[in-house]
Amino acid sequence: MYQLNLTEAYCPAQADTDYRERTIEEMLREQVAARPDAMALREMLADGAIGREWTYAELLSDAEKCGRALAARHVAGTRIAIMGGNCPEWVMVQLGAAMAGLVIVTVNPSFLAREVRYVLEQSGAGAVYYQPNVRGSALRPVVDEAAAGTQAGEFVIDIEDHAELFSGERDGVLRATKPLDICMIQYTSGTTGFPKGVLLHQHGLVQSNHDVFARWGLSAGETVMCPFPLFHTAGSAVCVLGVLARGGTILLVSVFDPVAVAKAIEREQPEVLGGVSTMIFAVIEAAKATGTDVSSLKKVISGGAMVQPELNRAAQEVFGVPILIVYGQTETSPTITAAWPTDSGADLTETIGQAGSHMEVAIRSPNDGSICAADEQGEICMRGFNMMVGYNDNPAATAETIDAEGWLHTGDLGTMNSRGYVKITGRVKEMIIRGGENLFPAEIEAAMLEHPAIAEVAVAGVPDEKWGEIVACFMRLAEGAERPSDDELKAFIRERLSPQKTPAHWVWLTQFPLTGSGKIQKFALAEQFSRGDFES
Length: 536
Hints:
- This protein has 16 helices and 28 strands.
- By secondary structure, it is of the alpha/beta class.
- Helix 15 (486-494) links the parallel strand 27 and strand 28 (505-509).
C-alpha cells in the first residue's frame, strides 16, 4: 500500500509501476515475443467444460487475421458495433479492430431493438458484428430491426461464421495506430438518464488495467476466470487487456452458472476469480452446496461498491481469501481506486482502497470545488491518463463531467482518510435536499437493510410542496418474510437515524427498474412515483 499521511483529501499520482504509452497491438506483440507458447485465452463452455484454447502466438495470429479482414471492409476510424456474449470471437474482434485502426462500440446483448438502434445512431456505427444466440435469445432479428435504414445495416456480420468474419483478410492490411487513438466506445449504464457514449483510448485501457493487476500481484502464466460481460469495461478492459498486459491466461466464462464455475475452479485451479458481488455470492453458495473445493484461488476481485463484511467473511471461509474491490467508472477505463492484498479487514470491507497508479484522486466540495479536509465528505474526483476523451457528440455533458482544471467528477460522494483510503457515501445527484438540509440515500438504505424483512432497498427524493423534496423508500420483501407496517418501519428507522431522515413514503416492489449492468435506476423510481404509479 501507499504510505501516506494526508491532511487534506488529495492523493497525488503514485509512480509505483512501469509507465509507458502503448497501443493494444504493441502490448500483445510484446507478450508474444516474451511467451509465444504460453496460454493466453481459454474458453469455458456453459457446462463448465473447456472449449477452444489459444497460446499468445495463436491469439496474435487470429487477431491479425481478423484485423486484416476488418481493414479490408472498413476505412480507418470506422466505428463498428459488437453485440454478443462472452465468446472468443468477441475478443478477436476487439483486438483485430485495434490493429485495423477501427473503434469498437460495445452493445449489451440484452438490449431491445430500440435500445440497440439508439447506440448505432448515436455512435455513427458503420457495421454490426453479432453473436447469433446469447442465453437462448436469437440476436439477428433484434439486429436487423435496429440496423434497418442506418449505415450500420450495410455490414451485419455473424462473428461465429468464420468464413464471413474473416472474409477478405488476404486483401486487408493492418494499420499503424497511436496510443492515444480512440479504440472503444462504451455506453454508460444510465442510472441518471439516457446512456452516453464514452470515448476511450488505447493507452488508458492498457496501462490502467495492467496496473490494477500489478497491484494484485498477478504473475505471468497465472489464470484469471472472467465471468464479467465483455460489453462492459470489467470484461473487455480489466479482464481482457489487463490480464494480457500482465502475461496471464484469460479463462473466459461463456455462460455464468455458479455450479459450473465452482466445479471448473476445482478442476482447472485458476489463481484469480472476478465477478460482481452477486456472482461471487452465488459461487460461494454453489461450492457449499456441492462440496466443491475452490481453495486454489489466491485472489477474488469484485467491482462496484464496498464489500459487505458478511460477504467477505463467507469468501474467507470458502475461498480462503478476502474479496479485493476495484472502484471506477466507464469514463476512467475503469479504475479509480483499488484494494491491496495486504489491506486489513476493516480497509477491505469499509473502503474502496487507495488511488490507482499514476492518477490523482481527491475529494472536492460539491459547492465550490475546493479540496476537502481528510475525512470530510465531498465528491470523489480524479485526474489522470486513463480519463475518457469525452462523451461522443455531447460536449455539454463532457463539460459537466470534466472541469476546466481537468478533474473528472464521478458524481459519487465520499471521504478520504489520512492514509488515502476512500469510502463511498452516496451520489451527488441522488442527494436529497429536504427543507435545505442535505440527506444521503446510502445512509438511509444501509439502516433499512438491517431490517430482516427487507431484501433490497432504494431511497430516492420525490417532490414535495412544503419541503421541496422528501424521502421515499422503495423495498423488496425478503423471501418468506411478513410485510411490516409503515408504523413498524418508521419505528425501526427512528431507532437508527434522526427524524428528518425518516422516509415519508414506503413503497413495496417485486422488482426494480435496472440498467443493463444491473444497477437500480433511482431516477426511474422517482419518475414513476411522481406519476402516481405506486401506492404508498
